[in-house]
Design a protein that fits this description.
single chain, 328 residues, mainly alpha, MetI-like fold, 13 helices, globular
Length: 328
């Protein structure tokens, strides 16, 4: 690791840290602007609870403190991984959501991997067949799905493949009453079957941007002089694509894929509700409906941090792929 890369790494880590601090500050302000009394919300499930419990909740939550004191306590609690108690489940929000985070990461990771692999492959085909039927078909596919609402497409797949054809399960992460561990082959197949429709929805929804950017990037690269020279040396189209055009065209894809993390993460919320897939998005919607602000605050934080980390990784990968890239 050379000195220039270490300097870039240090600068980008510092910028990411500052961004995360801003997200945490926004998280603090946002949920204190909500017109609701957290201590009262803790009592809403049992109207017979005496007011002494209410005042105890006020004391425990530090609501008697000034806003600057609350802010300092919030930052300390966040850095010490004390993220609050869910109003709905009366448990630590981490304990409530830790399993859900794993399921959402599995879903998002699967969708992102397929988005990259399929998007790059179709983008290459479209660029190599520029102006031909293959290019028109693939580009048309990308444009058609680019602006399609994720929840609407999820409902279409649900009706067709889970309703009419009954090929895949319509909801949940596994068959009811089944536990993932101890792991077995049958359980893995069960998880895959339940994940096919949600993952397909998110993959196709995010695929369009990757296809179009890869196609347009390759079209630009294929007109460069060094590509003409490579053909003049007798290299085949496959060799030119593998050794020259592909590596240079993939740089915009890295940036796009990092930006798509936010899109895929947001799409996961809609998809999980449609398919009743109990991941972090499902718990978020439940928390909003139940005014469970500690849950909302925790999920907002981890979502923001995930996007920051994804962009940080993309920046560093860009520098590694092409040292000429200078990131400020």
């Amino acid at each position: 690791m050379g000195k220039p890369f270490r300097r870039i790494l240090a600068r980008r880590l510092f910028n990411a840290f500052i961004t995360i601090l801003l997200i945490m500050s926004l998280n603090f302000v946002l949920f204190r602007m909500v017109p609701a009394d957290p201590a009262l919300l803790m009592m809403k499930r049992d109207p017979q609870t005496p007011m002494s419990v209410y005042w105890r909740n006020v004391e425990i939550m530090g609501l008697n403190d000034s806003l600057p004191e609350q802010y300092v306590n919030y930052m300390i609690d966040t850095f010490t991984l004390e993220w609050g108690i869910s109003y709905t489940y009366r448990e630590d929000v981490v304990d409530v959501t830790k399993a859900a985070v794993g399921w959402t990461v599995l879903l998002i990771g699967t969708a992102t991997a397929f988005t990259f692999i399929i998007g790059v492959a179709l983008g290459k085909i479209a660029a190599m067949k520029r102006g031909k039927a293959s290019d028109i078909t693939i580009s048309g596919f990308g444009i058609f799905f680019y602006g399609m609402p994720v929840f609407w497409f999820a409902l279409v797949l649900l009706i067709i493949f889970a309703g009419w054809l009954s090929w895949f399960p319509s909801s949940d992460r596994m068959e009811p009453g089944t536990h993932l561990f101890p792991l077995s082959f049958d359980k893995i197949i069960d998880v895959i079957e339940h994940m096919v429709l949600p993952a397909a929805t998110m993959t196709i929804g995010a695929l369009a941007g990757i296809i179009l950017i890869m196609r347009n990037s390759l079209v630009d690269v294929l007109t460069e002089d060094y590509i003409v020279t490579a053909y003049a040396k007798g290299l085949s189209g496959r060799e030119v694509m593998k050794r020259h055009a592909g590596p240079n065209a993939r740089l915009p894809i890295v940036t796009t894929l990092a930006m798509d993390v936010a899109f895929i993460f947001g799409g996961a919320f809609q998809v999980e509700i449609v398919f009743n897939y109990k991941g972090i998005g499902w718990y978020t919607i439940q928390a909003i409906w139940n005014s469970d602000y500690p849950m909302c605050q925790f999920i907002f934080l981890i979502g923001g941090v995930a996007v920051v980390v994804a962009n940080l990784i993309a920046d560093l990968v860009l520098v590694k792929l092409d040292p000429r890239v200078q990131i400020t």
